Amino acid sequence: MQSPGCAIICEGVSYAYRSGEKALADISLKIAPGEFAAVVGHNGSGKSTLAMLLSGLEKPGTGTVLVDGIGTHDAARAKDIRNICGIVFQNPENQIVFEKVHDDIAFGLKNRGMKDDEIEARVAEVSRQLGIEKFSGSFELSMGQKQRVAIAGVLAANPRCVIFDEPTAMLDPRGKKEIHRIIVDLHRAGLTVVYVTNLIDEVLAADRIILLSGGRIAGAFRREDLPARLETLRSLGLETPFILEAAEQFRARGLAVTLDDYTLTALVDGVIRSGGKAP
Ligand SMILES: Nc1ncnc2c1ncn2[C@@H]1O[C@H](COP(=O)(O)OP(=O)(O)OP(=O)(O)O)[C@@H](O)[C@H]1O
Ligand SMILES: [Mg+2]
Question: Nearest 5°: CA angle at 234, between 267 and 202?
Answer without folding.
Answer: 50
